[in-house]
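Quick start: read one record
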Amino acid sequence: MDNKTTKILQLGRNIFKYRKQKGYSQNELAEMLDISREHLAKIETAKRCISLGLLIDIAEKLDIPVRDFFDF
């Protein structure tokens, strides 16, 4: 696995971690973001890259700074 893929995977894991800390299911957060649960699941498992705009929206919904997603 190359460095880029590893970082994308870690980003997804961090989104998962903060979502769980806030007590949201994938369905709940996806609804808040107006995306499908499947889309969110693919982001959390690094099967889909995330746009900067969506990353900012997730951070806002989870009430954390965007930079926290990059703690790896």
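The radius of gyration is 11 Å.
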